[in-house]
Amino acid sequence: MARDKNRIDLILNGRKSEGKAAGAILPGHALRVDGNGEYVVQNSNGAIGAERIIALEDRLQGKSVDDAYADDDTVFFAFPVPGDVLNVVIAASQTLVVGDKVCMNASGQFIKFAAQASIDAIILEATTTGVGVTALAAVRFI
User: What pLDDT, in 10s, does the model give residues 47-64?
Assistant: First the structure.
């Protein structure tokens, strides 16, 4: 089933917020808070217990899911809760089918679940990415 690719939050019951970006961030990236209280792309591979923060597009400035945030921009993000459906960035070289479990990688993208990682979400649409190519895909957080 095709999902809306014009926005990140498709079904969101979790909280939204904003903060200062420390580096380039794409809507759909998983984020973390750095030691300065700024938001950066998640950099721990499948970290168990990592806070779930997903960058949203900047609709207030008329930006789309294709427009990256730059260093020092105000970045908008969501704290998804179980059941929320969001488009997230799927890493390159992934072949995912509906129902696959995915987790965050060290680039703030999502990959097929591997042992010793936390399961963050379930893929809702078949997605294949090529070498060096990422894509947005809908997931349901668990």
Answer: 566 789 999 999 998 999
